[in-house]
Batch of 2 targets.
Target 1
Amino acid sequence: NAGVTQTPKFRVLKTGQSMTLLCAQDMNHEYMYWYRQDPGMGLRLIHYSVGEGTTAKGEVPDGYNVSRLKKQNFLLGLESAAPSQTSVYFCASSYLNTEAFFGQGTRLTVV
Amino acid sequence: AQKITQTQPGMFVQEKEAVTLDCTYDTSDPSYGLFWYKQPSSGEMIFLIYQGSYDQQNATEGRYSLNFQKARKSANLVISASQLGDSAMYFCAMRPGDHNNDMRFGAGTRLTVKP
């Protein structure tokens, strides 16, 4: 029972490099979310998706792009990484009006 | 957009006592869901309890209960009979009940249970 799986778990990037974080869920959930967690600021919503082929901006979307080409996958892209994007990234998925299930998180450091 | 406020950065409680973690929210949506999550030092997000805005009764799950006061827009988490393993970060979250389903979190409260 995999639930929500994030790849990779850890990554170090140099400023200006690009990367993609992958989130995969096997629960047939419609809704998927990307958050970043920074000390003292809780979880802030980056982008989310209410279904395959749809995405929407959250609270802190700048510097990130997302795609949901398949219902089970939600990709988060950083085109040109900056030190301010050093954070722990969480993906989550849910049905409407139920709790969200979270991945284990990705610790990203941009140097 | 909705806003979630947790005003207690840190709380202490004696083992076996009860503790209340505060959460207030602001939304114009008539239908919404309220959630509490626990994040231990290991980092995973653990769902604790859910309250729907139209639910007539306060939600309970074992030692967790949600004190929902709709008119005051508050959804406080009550943990009864605290245990050492309850030491963690606790996050309140809200999601509108319509299809625009962006789920937002408060800044969290760090709970420390003292032996």
Target 2
Amino acid sequence: DTAVSQTPKYLVTQMGNDKSIKCEQNLGHDTMYWYKQDSKKFLKIMFSYNNKELIINETVPNRFSPKSPDKAHLNLHINSLELGDSAVYFCASSQAGDYGYTFGSGTRLTVV
Amino acid sequence: AQSVTQLGSHVSVSEGALVLLRCNYSSSVPPYLFWYVQYPNQGLQLLLKYTSAATLVKGINGFEAEFKKSETSFHLTKPSAHMSDAAEYFCAVSQRAGAQKLVFGQGTRLTINP
């Protein structure tokens, strides 16, 4: 069983479209994250949820909206996609008292 | 604010040689430090972590790192490189456990020459 799974793995879409990326973890962790990895491999946190509550919201455009229906799921919805949104988006999870994240395998988003 | 600097975006070593990947951090409070590895088209895998216990930390695949507070460093080493070690390596820092924010360095690509 995959610990942190993301769907889809690849996403190619046109500018202006709206798309969603889904993430699920079966580790029983109470915190989930979205990270963005740009073309230079730099990783930056976007959002973090703890037990469905938003606790970290970095300076991300309002077009990005995370949603956590329960502590095992964290989805990312992106409105009005732009070329600059092309990147790999990673979901991750962690547990209070533990150290380090468990990452998903990533979603490669290409906006054309 | 915390930050991480990885010296050298690309390191190349021969198979069997010592691997040394450098990481320096900046933190106003005692940090937790991590090394992750990313293989092509995959997610990040935790190699090892420093969480204020022993300063010499051993991880998976024969890697280890030493926390040196005086040098604000957390360099990653492996005595003998293997072809399978070729990957991107990331150093990261956080302030506290649980719902922490990991701040990553820019990554170092490790190439192994036969």
